[in-house]
Amino acid sequence: MEILEKEKCIQIQKELVDKIQIKNIVEKDEIKTIAGVDLAYWKKEDIEYAVCCIVVIEAESLKVLEKVDFMGEVGFPYIPGCLAFRELPFILEAKKKLQIDPDIYIFDGNGYLHPRHMGIATHAAIYLQKPSIGVAKSYYKIGETDFVMPSNEEYAFTDIIIEGEVYGRVLRTKKDVKPIFISVGNYIDLKTATEIIKHCVTKESHIPAPTRLADIETHERRKFYNSNENL
């Protein structure tokens, strides 16, 4: 069953590739609000649940403007390389709760840096119709391609190039910390995506504020839902 589902997912991903636009549909100075997106999972009585949290911040000040979440049972198995099919329903439901319409979304995961260029940041953006960026904390290896570690300097980076094409960027946001892995989601170019991520990194963490705050929120909401017997 899982093999058949994976084959179907891959076919859908291949069909969606034509919808990718690696170009800016809005100028950087037009971005006023940024949303960070993350999910957390847990099991209760053999039922798997997830909660998606979206935290919207003001682009200039990085102050939190809004937080929403959506929790429910997980209806799709974990299939490597097909994460969007598992997470997208939660993301779209959480998005419905937003009062603010974010100018850009940043995901805790990959976008173009994916075997079929269809990581969660890219796949979700097609439905959100907004620019997006993928930021991962670890490298999802594609084929036999390893990444080159950037020099130990703030904002040093190397690009992940496969068969002559740039899939993503390895960015060290602070000296003496592990790098993060940036990739275009959709409707934005890598240069602009990198500039936005650099702007969103604060002294609190080497991870950009939107996804860091979303990650914190998912842990809090997971704890709340998991401990509430009436949910």
CATH architecture: 2-Layer Sandwich
Sheet with most strands: strand arrangement: 3-2-1-4-5-8-7-6
Residue fraction in strands: 25-35%
Q: Return the average pLDDT rounded to an integer.
A: 95
Task: Summarize the main sheet.
Answer: 8 strands, mixed
Q: How many structural units, i.e. domains?
A: 1
Number of helices: 5
N-to-C SSE string, H for helix and E for strand: HEEEHEHEEEEHH
Which CATH class? Alpha Beta
Residue windows where pLDDT falls under 50 for at least 5 positions? none
Short description:
The protein is of the alpha+beta class. The chain is built from 5 helices and 8 strands; from the N terminus they run H-E-E-E-H-E-H-E-E-E-E-H-H. It has a single domain (37-227), classed as archaeoglobus fulgidus dsm 4304 superfamily (archaeoglobus fulgidus dsm 4304 fold, 2-Layer Sandwich).
Explain how this protein is built.
By secondary structure, the chain is α+β, with helices and mostly antiparallel strands. It has one domain (37-227): archaeoglobus fulgidus dsm 4304 superfamily (archaeoglobus fulgidus dsm 4304 fold, 2-Layer Sandwich). Helix content is 29%, strand content 29%. It has helices at residues 2-16, 83-96, 120-128, 190-200, 209-227; strands spanning 33-44, 47-58, 64-73, 104-108, 132-136, 156-162, 165-172, 180-186. Strands 3-2-1-4-5-8-7-6 form an 8-stranded mixed beta sheet, sandwiched between helices. β4 (104-108), α3 (120-128) and β5 form a beta-alpha-beta unit. α2 runs parallel beside α3 (120-128). The longest helix is centred in the last third of the chain and has 19 residues, at 209-227. The chain is globular, with a radius of gyration of 17 Å. The two termini are 30 Å apart. The model has no long low-confidence stretch (mean pLDDT 95).
